[in-house]
Amino acid sequence: MPVGYDEAIGIFWVYVAGDLRLPQRRMLKSPGLLSRTHEEAMPQLAQRIGRAKPSAIMVIAETAKQLKASGRDIISFSIGVPNFLPGDHVYAAAREALSHDSGQYGSNRGSDALLDAFLKHIEALGFTGYGRLNLSVGIGAKQVLYNLAEALLNEGDEICFPAPYWTTYHDIADIVGAKANVLHCGPDQNYKLTPQQLQAALARKPKVFLFNNPSNPTGMVYTREEIAALAEVLAQYPDTWIITDDIYNSMVFDGIGYHNFVFARPELRDRLIFVDSISKTYGMPGWRVGLIAGPENVAKAVTTLNSNHITSVPEVIAAAAIAALSGPQDVPQAKCKEFAQKRDVVLAALAKIPGVVCPRPQGAFYAFPDISVAFGKSHHGTRIENDVEFCAALLGTKGVACVPGSAFGEPRAMRISYTCPTAQLAPGLARIAEFFAELS
């Protein structure tokens, strides 16, 4: 029975014979042994740690890994990693940097060479007029987003973002004590935010509007026209910061293209922060480099925070990131085409399952089908009432790991990450179809 407990923050997760329970927040009055039966005078953890919890995605990925290690035949559609390696030139750059390593601290903002490589990268996307002072770096986009939350949000401030959302958005808001206003965008509207929804949300005067395009977990991509319509609304509310977490900007299919609010309304650049990463595009999630482009005061604030915790991106890592951003793009371009083909395989398989609805993703490497047709049914005697029970039964009986949609704010769905080896994709999808067919 794989059971996980993080004593420091009082989080349990359990997988027991098909019962997968996602992380739950639990405040401990007294950190220490669970057998402690009375309150003792001792130091207490900060209250904010009681608002933190492990990533639900990582819980499921680790559970699948443990089951596979125990001998189970597991196909994982859970964790959102690209599952390819960068080009040889990236490793060559890292080796070269290692052979000339200075052993010194680097820049809190990022080395000039890394900033210049990022400037060229964003200029190719359409961001013009930016300089080094508009940029900063971090240990992955997740750390950059946390820095932005610390820099922009006071405790009690409101942050709004569409759902389905990446799980970390809500978690970071909770940790810094911000109030999250979640804007629900269901499958009936292709999981996309409408101008009317945005207008109503901004009328509440949130401090930050956080946007993700292409979307994790849905894979949806906003068209030029959809971005322009939302930008018109954003322009009416000058007191709200805008963060666009667009780390999948190079993984866009069907010729739809990547578009940003500043392309439609350039004046928004004074309060818009663009977040990017080398993780997804270049197959480098373990290298941990995130970057931002935005107003100088925001970039300076993030740089100041860096000086107080990470100091800098390591020199060797920076060299690899520079090579990825400025070197040959053949590997990510080929992988983008491959992911588009895998997307088609996934959609074709899901379309054959009665009652399952999946809006067509046009980017990233996710599908987010509505599986609520299964709720209220049973699988070999196991009653399924929600997405967590569905994914637990699917993993327990078919050995397929998917992430319940409730982790992303949409409990009717589940996320399929289709970056697994091609040989596993069709068999995994066939197991999902079998599972549905066996419901009664």
The main pleated sheet reads as:
7 strands, mixed
- Kindly state the mean pLDDT as a whole number? 91
CATH topology of the largest domain: Aspartate Aminotransferase, domain 2
- Derived from helix and strand composition plus strand pairing, the structural class reads alpha/beta
The radius of gyration is 22 Å
Shape: globular
How many distinct helices? 13
CATH architecture of the largest domain: 3-Layer(aba) Sandwich
The CATH homologous superfamily of the largest domain is called Type I PLP-dependent aspartate aminotransferase-like (Major domain)
- The CATH class assignment of the largest domain is Alpha Beta
Strand order of the largest sheet: 5-11-10-9-8-6-7
- Termini Cα gap: 28 Å
Question: Which spans of ≥5 residues are poorly predicted at pLDDT below 50?
Answer: 1-18, 25-35
Q: What share of the residues lie within helices? A: 25-40%
Whole-number count of domains: 3
